User: Which sequence fits this backbone?
């Protein structure tokens, strides 16, 4: 009776020692930090002070209940300019399915941002983030940076660099299917 | 057995020292690792030897629990000494979110305007904050706050049109908050240095920070913290009137820009490896149970003792 118990205990001890070693050492071999817009995924979209083109306060909370395409841009940024017609297409074609496109200009004045948007025939909402807080909160590596936000206000996808119409629609598809 | 208990106490003391002084040089020194290993080894041998001589079941249980406590605490301290990564400091701009996969946590840095803002640690559904007074232990890591000086800059055209500030070489591209992580030697001083770009007007601006005392020496008057701006075009060519000393909060023309610096103290987070807290908790429980068995184990209640 004693011999099988001893063997069992030996195995238990070996397994316990291996488990303890794995538990103690595993944290030291995991990757270190990561940053960038991807860290926003799964988190609520930050609600930071914004102003419209006339300088009046504007909050993204007023768009709650819609699927949002939040695009950080600036007039001096050539890839942003290239992407804006595709965003306009999304805004026009998908509005009926509850999609809203919001362009958040980073650090420029409302007059500059709205004049630039008008020159490109942009009709979606343009607002200004004068102190670039969204740029910081998004951990943007560059411009443009885009986040897709669900109807509850949570970020579900985030992208660095310009997107095309098919890419945006593909990212929106799961949200438009689930109402 | 008593000597075994002393070894056990020695291991706990050593591991608690690692916990209390995570940045001390001894934690990762070879002599410390060897000392810890020797204490665990000798203590284990001592307890195992005494095990054979213990007559009562409760005493044997106490010895086994003490051995478990010694091994678990020793392993926690040993793995921390031998494998723990070097301390690192996470310096981020206000509002930034930095993920720490090894902790399954995300650090959310506070807004610059918030006085005494704390960095929030979001883990799963819960959030805790790290202030500069109290660190936060998470599993095998201590998160500690350290305040640094940062400079928030604002750039405008001479007509007062606000311009985007970017940091092509910084950690966060779209931030007007300069983290001043580099140093530049000027007039014998090692001074915090950073740079930013104003892409709309093709300008690159170098920024050097002076304390009030240094500024007074340089300017012979003003006793405010001061920033030196040096404006170049995007090809690196120096412009006319391209150097400007600007006091904290002042708005001044430098080359063809209106620049305003605001100097702030802002938290950075030190990530320090410590012995695993869950493992230490387990070891402590085993040690307390051993103590209980040892102190309160009565001969009358012990069937093996009654047989004898």
Assistant:
């Amino acid at each position: 009776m004693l011999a099988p118990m001893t063997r069992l205990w030996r195995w238990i001890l070996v397994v316990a020692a291996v488990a303890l070693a794995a538990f103690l050492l595993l944290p030291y071999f995991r990757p270190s930090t990561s940053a960038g817009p991807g860290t926003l995924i799964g988190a609520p979209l930050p609600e930071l002070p914004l102003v419209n083109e006339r300088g009046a306060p504007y909050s993204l909370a007023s768009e709650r209940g819609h699927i949002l395409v939040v695009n950080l841009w600036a007039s001096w940024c050539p890839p942003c300019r290239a992407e804006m017609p595709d965003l306009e297409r999304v805004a026009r074609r998908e509005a009926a399915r509850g999609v809203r496109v919001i362009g958040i200009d980073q650090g420029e004045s409302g007059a500059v941002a709205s004049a630039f948007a008008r020159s490109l025939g942009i009709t979606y909402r343009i607002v200004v983030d004068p102190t670039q807080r969204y740029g910081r909160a998004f951990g943007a590596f560059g411009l443009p940076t885009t986040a897709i936000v669900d109807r509850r206000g949570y970020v579900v996808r985030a992208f660095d660099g310009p997107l095309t119409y098919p890419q945006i629609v593909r990212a929106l598809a799961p949200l438009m299917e689930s109402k | 057995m008593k000597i075994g208990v002393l070894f056990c106490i020695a291991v706990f003391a050593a591991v608690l020292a690692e916990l209390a002084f995570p940045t001390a040089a001894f934690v990762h020194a070879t002599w410390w690792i060897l000392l810890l290993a020797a204490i665990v080894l000798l203590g284990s041998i001592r307890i195992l030897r005494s095990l054979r001589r213990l007559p009562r079941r409760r005493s044997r249980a106490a010895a086994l629990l003490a051995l478990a406590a010694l091994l678990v605490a020793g392993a926690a301290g040993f793995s921390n000494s031998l494998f723990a990564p070097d301390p690192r400091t996470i310096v981020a701009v206000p509002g930034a979110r930095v993920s720490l996969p090894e902790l399954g946590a995300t650090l959310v840095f506070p807004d610059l305007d918030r006085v005494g803002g704390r960095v929030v640690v979001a883990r799963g559904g819960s959030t805790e904050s790290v202030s500069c007074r109290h660190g936060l232990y998470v599993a095998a890591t201590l998160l500690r706050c350290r305040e640094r000086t940062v400079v928030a800059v604002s750039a405008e055209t001479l007509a007062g049109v606000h311009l985007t500030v970017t940091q092509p070489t910084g950690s966060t591209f779209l931030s007007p908050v300069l983290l001043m992580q580099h140093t530049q030697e000027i007039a014998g001083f090692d001074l915090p240095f950073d740079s930013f770009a104003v892409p709309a007007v093709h300008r690159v601006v170098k920024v050097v920070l002076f304390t009030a005392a240094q500024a007074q020496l340089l300017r012979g008057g003003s006793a405010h913290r001061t920033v030196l701006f040096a404006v170049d075009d995007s090809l690196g060519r120096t412009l006319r009137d391209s150097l400007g000393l600007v006091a904290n909060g002042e708005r001044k023309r430098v080359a063809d820009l209106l620049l305003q610096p605001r100097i702030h103290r802002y938290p950075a987070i030190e990530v320090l490896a410590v012995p695993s807290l869950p493992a230490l908790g387990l070891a402590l429980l085993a040690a307390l149970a051993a103590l209980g068995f040892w102190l309160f184990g009565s001969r009358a209640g012990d069937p093996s003792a009654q047989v004898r």
Notes: Confidence is low (pLDDT under 50) at residues 300-308 of chain B. The two ends of chain B are 21 Å apart (CA to CA).
